[in-house]
Amino acid sequence: MLLIPCPWCGDRDETEFHYGGQAHVAYPQSPDALSDAQWAEYLFVRDNPKGEFAERWCHNAGCRRWFNLVRDTATHQIVVQR
Amino acid sequence: MSAVLPEHPEFLWRNPDPRRSYEVVIVGGGGHGLATAYYLARNHGITNVAVLERGWLAGGNMARNTTIIRSNYLWDESAAIYEHALKQWEALPEELDYDFLFSQRGVLNLAHTPQDVREGVRRVNANQLNGVDAEWLNPDQVKEFCPIVDISPGVRYPVLGATLQPRAGIAKHDHVAWAFARTADEHGIDLIQDCEVTGFLRDGDKILGVQTTRGPIMADRIGLAAAGHTSVLAGLAGLRLPLQSHPLQALVSELLEPVHPCVVMSNHVHVYVSQAHKGELVMGAGVDPYNSYAQRGSVHVIERQMAAALELFPIFARAHVIRTWGGIVDVTPDASPIIGATPLANLFVNCGWGTGGFKATPASGWVYAHTLATGRAHPLNEPFALERFTTGALIDEHGAAAVAH
Ligand SMILES: Cc1cc2nc3c(=O)[nH]c(=O)nc-3n(C[C@H](O)[C@H](O)[C@H](O)COP(=O)(O)OP(=O)(O)OC[C@H]3O[C@@H](n4cnc5c(N)ncnc54)[C@H](O)[C@@H]3O)c2cc1C
Ligand SMILES: [Zn+2]
Q1: Per mean pLDDT, which range of B3-17, B70-84, B212-226, B241-255 is the poorest?
Q2: Using a CB-CB distance cutoff of 8 angstroms, which residues of chain A are in contact with residue B244?
Q3: Rounded to whole angstroms, how far apart are CA atoms B322 and B203?
Q4: In this predicted structure, what is the pLDDT of residue A5?
Q5: Residue B2 pLDDT > 60, yes or no?
Q6: Which residue from B68, B70, B86, B357 has the highest number of Cβ atoms inside 10 Å of its Cβ?
Q7: Is the beta carbon of B405 within 6 A of some atom in ligand 1?
Q8: From CA B162, how far away is CA B142, in angstroms rounded?
Q9: What mean pLDDT do residues B316-330 have?
């Protein structure tokens, strides 16, 4: 079980959190202007690195706020909180 | 007592050094890579082939899965490819002259809510229209088929019925890999272990070969069959694929007297259970939610899965967990695989089988061999092309496939 540092509540068990996948994926500025391939990329394709990964978590069973972490997907080590 | 396991053959495969070039190079020596090699030889007469494996053959998901084999998927495209696999499973023990304990003991997918019942009945109807054996069982019939399931109405998630595929079952996964490997080797195909692909040799958008820890290897066509590590490999070629890698865990109990006659899966409480030939109960859960390559998951996932198993099978209360483990599975947005060409010439992918690719092993190998031999998709893998994420023609087996294993 991961021990996840919520920026507002401190270290809590993973079971209190909901995973949100890759962080910093912005909604396209002008969706109408995207080609099908660009739209597919936005909808379906995310980074999947073996190593450091910026990801989103929501502290569902606590403060219920979203935040970002950088975690190493090869070791599960949480590298930075941001 | 438990079944007597067949003796291992005296000889399985050579351990050749890689040659400088091949007609086809397959990256990944799991079930899919080995089956692809076998069918390249069997169906296409192509034997100038190498399978490159960075560890040992079948050290990935192939020998970590819970070995459930079935073909009762909802959508036509899925039913077609998984049923092709099931037909091959029925022929393979004789064809490969290898007893890998394929046991068609039947798979139940339990329904616990009125919506589960509607979906189950719909799937039975769809399966029957596709020529896949399927029946709907009421709770008493479930009890008759699997006497240890608790069908009492008082439990938190009562059993309201189940789908049954009688031809579905289990096999011994490591033996399956060895059976394919031995026959591929007999055909002269090089199975090269301890050989990690670390890059691609290319000329613009054309892939010419692979860079490996045992030197460069040229090939006319290169097929990735690297399961959970496909994104990492594709990344070396600058390709982004709609895949996310997650841990998937399973566990076994100690060896017990035979108590469990079939395979029981429950989507709703999320557990699936069978009893292996030696006697251990084999149980699997759902994926851990986070991305990972660590081949381990979180213990609360196991705890939940065992709670579900205990409610369904009170008789397991005194069994012990002997071993838990995890594999890394490559999950696509529609829970269906991606098999076919990539934007890079000569580079092909077979990935995204996620939590359920063991059952597909023979069909995956069959259609991938066709694709690598001819450069074109087989009719069975045409719908599973990478382009479906752009055209929108998804094959959405999330939920539709009962549980995805
Ligand atoms: C716990 C668990 C339970 C499962 N239960 C079931 C089930 O009951 N039924 C079912 O149908 N499916 C199940 N699955 C899914 C099934 O195991 C997979 O879909 C299937 O095994 C994937 O294909 P494979 O056998 O070729 O993969 P793998 O055996 O993982 O083969 C991929 C190979 O590629 C190699 N590789 C990776 N990178 C490189 C590189 N750079 N160079 C060289 N080689 C490389 C790896 O070392 C590995 O050996 C389960 C999976 C897990 C983890
Ligand atoms: Zn919080």
Answers
A1: B3-17
A2: 21, 46, 48
A3: 51
A4: 96
A5: no
A6: B70
A7: yes
A8: 7
A9: 96
Task: Report which DSSP code applies to B63.
Answer: G
| CB-ligand 1 contact for B248 (6 Å cutoff) | yes
- B402 pLDDT band (50/70/90 cuts)? very low
For residue B245, the model assigns a pLDDT of 98
Domains and CATH numbers, chain A: 3-27+46-81 (3.30.2270.10)
Residue-level length of chain A: 82
Domain parsing of chain B, residue ranges: 2-64+174-243+333-400, 104-168+244-330
CA of A15 to the centre of ligand 2 (A): 12
CA distance B300 to B289: 12
> Is ligand 1 within 6 A of the CB of residue B359?
yes
What are the distances in angstroms from CA A80 to CA A72, A75, B9, B297?
Answer: 10, 14, 52, 21
Note the pTM of the prediction, 2 decimals.
0.97
Tokens of B270: 């999320």
Nearest to A48 among B245, B298, B300 (CB): B245
Which of B307, B60, B247 is closest to A1 using CA atoms?
Answer: B247
| Nearest residue by C-alpha to atom 19 in ligand 1 | B357
What is the pLDDT, as a whole number, of residue B330?
97
> Is domain B2-64+174-243+333-400 annotated with CATH 3.90.226.10?
no
CA B355–ligand 1 middle distance (angstroms): 9
